[in-house]
Amino acid sequence: MSTDKTPEQPELPPAVRRLWGIDAPRRRGPKPALSTARIVQAAMDVADTEGLPAVSMARVAEALGYTPMSLYRHVANKDELLLLMVDAVADDPPEIPDEAGWREGLELWTRAQIDVGVRRPWMLELPLSSAPPGPHRVRWMDQAFKALRTIDLPADEKLAMIGLLAQHVLGEARVQVESHRAAVQQVLRDSGLPASTPESELDPAAVEAANPWADLEALLVRSAGPGGYPHLFAAFSTWDATASTPPDDEISFGIRILLDGVETYLRRRGALPDEQPDEG
């Protein structure tokens, strides 16, 4: 008779159990007015309008019309609330079309995440790297695996590839958010407008022109002399701005370059479907 025993699974932390709705109490009768989901949504609403630093148990309780003690029956503390927000902000993963190839699917998936970060910049201030994955974030993973379903790689390699793309998402979204924020502040200063002026009242063309990266090439041409910056000087000494054809979408440009590297790796691993031998 076999004496093998199934190894016991480690006990999940309370925050993770709450994140996944494990052991959620089942009550008879009417649904309670206050719930974890409602608290998290209220916290996200506060972050949308006032920024993440404004999110506190007291402020969320005020927005809901409850006392802070009422929230603690559903969420242990602010740190747990932030962990729950990490998952809740990822509540709308893209649906990768069935006919999409792996590149098209991963480009759509990566771009969609960057769009979330730009639309809700407070997301970038959450503990994204240390938060355990919840059901919404795992659905994003599932869609990425759908894009990679025809790729002949072990699951752990696919997961590492998705992690690489996720790192690019965080970096690109941060650049987009911070450069746009700097541009808005510059337009406000130049116009002599108060900092409370809504961005909707600003000239979009002025905001775009004020982006600190807008004229980077021209700045390097003017400032990078041969003495201190010989390699930049050599590269830009023959650069013609009128003949330059920069990508019309810098976000997609970055994703495509990253996926070019992924494709090179997949070819080296022989992992692409119906791969044709290189010619020449």
Report on this structure.
- This protein is mostly helical.
- The chain contains twelve helices and no strands.
- The longest helix has 37 residues.
- The C terminus is likely disordered.
Short summary:
The protein has helices at 14-19, 36-50, 57-64, 68-71, 78-88, 102-119, 135-147, 155-191, 204-209, 216-223, 230-236, 250-269. It is mainly alpha-helical and 280 residues long. The model is unreliable at 276-280 (pLDDT under 50).
Class from helix and strand fractions = mainly alpha
Shape: flat
The separation of the N and C termini measures 61 Å
Largest sheet: none
What is the CATH fold-level name of the largest domain?
Answer: Tetracycline Repressor, domain 2
What count of structural domains? 2
Helix content: 40-55%
Mind telling me the CATH superfamily name of the largest domain?
Tetracycline Repressor, domain 2
H/E series: HHHHHHHHHHHH
Give a topology summary.
Elements: H1 14-19, H2 36-50, H3 57-64, H4 68-71, H5 78-88, H6 102-119, H7 135-147, H8 155-191, H9 204-209, H10 216-223, H11 230-236, H12 250-269
Helix pairs in contact: 2-3, 2-5, 6-7, 6-8, 6-12, 8-12
Characteristics:
280 residues, mainly alpha, Arc Repressor Mutant, subunit A, Tetracycline Repressor, domain 2, 2 domains, 12 helices, disordered C terminus
